[in-house]
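Notes from the 1:1 (GR / supervisor)

We went over the backlog. Supervisor wanted to see one worked example end to end before approving the batch request, so GR pasted a single chain during the call. The sequence is below; no edits were made to it. Supervisor asked that the structure be written out right there so they could see what the output format looks like.
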Amino acid sequence: MDTLWVSVSVTVLLVLVVAIFLWRRARARRRDETRLVSIVALLSAPRLFDPAIVASVAGKVWSLDLGDGSSPGEDGFVVGNVGPMTAIHAEGRMMIINSFPSPYVPNVDEVAASISDMRRSQLFAEHKAWFSIDAMGVTASSTDDEVREWYRRLGPLFAELLDEQCLLLFLPDADQLFALNEETELALRSADPHGELKATATVPLVHVDGDDPALAAAVAEARAKFPEFVAAFEEKRGENFGVKAPVTRDDATEFIWVEVTAIEGTKVYGQLANEPFRLRGLKLGSKVAVESSELNDWGYIDPQGQFVGGFTVAAVSQAAAKTKPRSEPS
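Structure output shown during the call:
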């Protein structure tokens, strides 16, 4: 009975600590606008977090003693039930893990339609739940160094909590949405998670009307000047040679960049330089062959370090901006 009473008393004490912290945060909000420094995972299915597991995982990530989820440790504590909210207090910092079995926004289809990148748009439309780790106490007057330090603290823990249910990452403070790839976890564990996440961004896949005059002119120029690309490739006058051409699998066709490894007659051989969207059985690095007569762009880095080609880049960006002006949820 004494042991039970001590356990209940500690839990009540921890809840009071969290309540006091949130009350102070609410007062601070009235004095200084808060910033939502947070990492959000958009999920295909709901997740719940056990405070005991969070305490163990966070303790290992940060090399701290955070207790066992029911009683505090030397360096802080984790408190909550197996439910939508878990609080973490570590070395004077407070974080909240939110986990909700509903979409991140009420108007999912509307927001998905406003995302110009087709890959991220589809994944956003598919998400059914979300969880986040929020930094408490960040305000408009917080310095850039303070914000970077928060991301350094949140990133590694978030990496430990990711699983196959995660479709996208969203950073509310930066209003940026990221598709996951093999570099995501390394970025989260780095000394600059926000900066490294930006470096993981893949080339956007956008829908552009094939009758767009600017795009048609750019494609015509790329095809007319393709012999210049072939000459540079064969003479090894540069590096990172790539063409953008249609690749088809089953009933799906996608214009995608291909890193060129050989050119034989009208055939261009290489490997996919982007992660495909609808091409079943193919992935980044898959070997493909395309017809040079069907390409719509090419590019390479010349010996002076200058990019040559990229005729359609501006036309595609302008056309996409006209049709879908927004890119992230807000």
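Supervisor's comment: The chain is about 35% helix and 25% strand.
Batch request approved.
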